[in-house]
Design brief:
about 180 residues; mainly beta; Jelly Rolls; seven-stranded mixed beta sheet; four-stranded antiparallel beta sheet; 1 helix; about 10% helix; disordered N terminus
Amino acid sequence: MNTAPNSAANDPVSFADIPAAFHVGSDDVPFADDFGAPGVHLKLLFADPEGGVFAVRIRFEPGVQLPPHHHTGSVYAFTLKGEWSYLEYPETPPNKAGSFLYEPPGSTHTLKVADHAAETDVFYVIHGAMLIQDPAGNVVARLDAASHLRDWPDALRAQGKKVPTIVAGGRVHYTKGE
């Protein structure tokens, strides 16, 4: 039998026990409403604290503006519907349905959802952390894979929603749903 070391316990694990792929149906995962800010509805699809990456789908209400934030790693965004942009970069075309955006590590910006967009729906893969800043540029919060893996289930429970199974990192596995 082929075996690979289990980094968590150093016990051999059969390759047959490791799925070739992990699947999460986005439509089966609930949004945590007003997650971190009013008008921000977030569902966590994947979080790997050890790898420093997480994937979320966020629905924004019209006119939402996030606080300025700095990314320590790269971000990939795909807009499913609606429209959003960065206040600091008015020359950049707005992100609309079908838009793909890459943000290099070290980018700092203020996300603004168009006032005329009925709803904006975006899928993000975020590497590293988002350092939330106050108006003076001081870091007031750190959002990353670990914080989302901790805070998102708590938000769902507080809203009376069932915590689903998602993919989690480290020794990649499904989390335990409720």
